């Protein structure tokens, strides 16, 4: 009741002042000016910022630390934070809370921590800033040969060639996505990879290989399937050993557009031995887009498949080829 009275008296006083002094206005306190103070020493970040756009703060950190910064989406929210001497990565995550962050390292034995941040990608996030992101994984990118195509759903296939990834310095990439942002995050990574972002490309390969959710792995492999490069072919070949058929289907669709001899051999092996009928059918349909001599033997083998749908595709394709080339069997 007392509060209502005070509100009523305030409104009445305001009305009287406006009648007596038409030019009277309430004084509104202006917003505090922006302040950005950033320092980096031996991999530790000190920040004192007030009412500053996040993109400007991150750019100041990148300049002080000497790494490449990429921002995607709306990253201009206002930031007021102050902390001293935290690790550079932890400081970036604090500043970008509520957004997705990808941090790439390169090993640097001469540095106090033995590694340096080389690239940071910040993606617009839709979750509340009160829900801090947590690390999804740390991926050590080894330029060695791809893993053989094996797994619970497939037997080892020694005839499948393995591709060697493009040589690059061994690095560590850490991915942070706010809770519930995986699919949108993968789409953003795919767009960044299509623009040439190596860190985003590497993270897609890592997510496709090791994320616990089959749905997320399939999304990552589907994104990889739209890219080019030897490391992409290697990741797609490895994805044919995934335990989930939806992931293997995405890998088949990606290998179809590769057009290389190794892709043909890989698809032929999948058509012959994958345990899921849909994957074998998809592999045969992919092989049908290649020149006949290169894939005829795969269709001959598939004509003896135990599944009627697979046999049907193989025999119809062989019959069509034989009709076009009567003297060839």
Please give a quick description of this structure.
The protein contains 12 helices and 8 strands. With 329 residues, the protein is an alpha+beta fold. Helix 4 (182-194) runs parallel beside helix 6, helix 6 (214-224) packs parallel to helix 8 and helix 11 (292-302) packs antiparallel against helix 12.
List the helices and strands and how they pair.
Elements lengths: L1 H19 L14 E7 L2 E10 H12 L2 E5 L5 E10 H8 L4 E8 L7 E9 L10 E8 L29 E7 L4 H13 L3 H13 L3 H11 L5 H10 L5 H12 L4 H13 L3 H11 L4 H11 L5 H17 L5
Parallel strand pairs: 3-6
Antiparallel strand pairs: 1-2, 2-4, 5-6, 5-8, 7-8
3D architecture notes:
There is one protein chain. By secondary structure, this protein is an alpha+beta fold. The protein has a domain at about 35-130: Phage tail protein beta-alpha-beta fold (3-Layer(bab) Sandwich), CATH 3.55.50. Helices cover about 45% and strands about 20% of the residues. The chain has helices at about 1-20, 55-65, 90-95, 180-195, 200-210, 215-225, 230-240, 245-255, 260-275, 275-285, 290-300, 310-325, and strands at about 35-40, 45-55, 70, 80-85, 100-105, 115-125, 135-140, 170-175. The strands form 2 sheets. Strands 3-6-5-8-7 form a 5-stranded mixed β-sheet, sandwiched between helices. Helix 6 runs parallel beside helix 8, helix 9 runs parallel beside helix 11 (about 290-300) and helix 10 (about 275-285) runs parallel beside helix 12. The termini are far apart. Mean pLDDT is about 75; it is low at about 125-170.
């Amino acid at each position: 009741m007392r509060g209502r009275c005070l509100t009523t008296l305030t409104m009445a006083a305001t009305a009287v002042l406006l009648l007596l002094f038409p030019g009277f206005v309430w004084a509104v306190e202006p917003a505090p000016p922006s302040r950005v103070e950033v320092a980096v020493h031996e991999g530790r970040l000190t920040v004192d910022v007030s009412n500053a756009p996040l993109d400007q703060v991150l750019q100041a950190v990148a300049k002080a630390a000497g790494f490449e910064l990429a921002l995607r989406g709306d990253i201009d929210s206002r930031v007021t934070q102050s902390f001293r001497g935290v690790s550079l990565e932890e400081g970036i995550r604090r500043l970008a809370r509520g957004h997705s962050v990808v941090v790439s390292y390169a090993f640097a034995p001469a540095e106090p921590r033995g590694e340096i941040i080389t690239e940071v990608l910040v993606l617009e996030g839709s979750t509340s800033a009160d829900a801090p992101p947590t690390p999804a994984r740390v991926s050590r990118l080894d330029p060695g040969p791809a893993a053989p195509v094996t797994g619970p759903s497939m037997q080892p296939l020694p005839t499948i060639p393995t591709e060697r990834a493009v040589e690059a310095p061994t690095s560590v990439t850490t991915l942070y996505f706010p809770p519930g942002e995986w699919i949108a995050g993968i789409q953003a990574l795919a767009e960044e990879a299509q623009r040439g972002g190596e860190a985003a490309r590497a993270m897609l390969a890592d997510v496709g290989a090791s994320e616990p959710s089959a749905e997320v792995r399939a999304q990552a492999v589907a994104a990889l399937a739209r890219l080019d490069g030897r490391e992409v072919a290697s990741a797609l070949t490895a994805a044919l050993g995934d335990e989930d058929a939806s992931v293997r289907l995405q890998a088949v669709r990606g290998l179809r557009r590769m057009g290389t001899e190794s892709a043909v051999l890989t698809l032929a092996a999948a058509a012959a031995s994958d345990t899921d009928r849909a994957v074998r059918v998809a592999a045969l349909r992919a092989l049908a887009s290649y020149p006949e001599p290169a894939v005829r033997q795969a269709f001959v083998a598939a004509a003896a498949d135990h599944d009627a749908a697979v046999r049907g595709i193989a025999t119809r394709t062989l019959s069509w080829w034989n009709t076009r080339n009567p003297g060839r069997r």
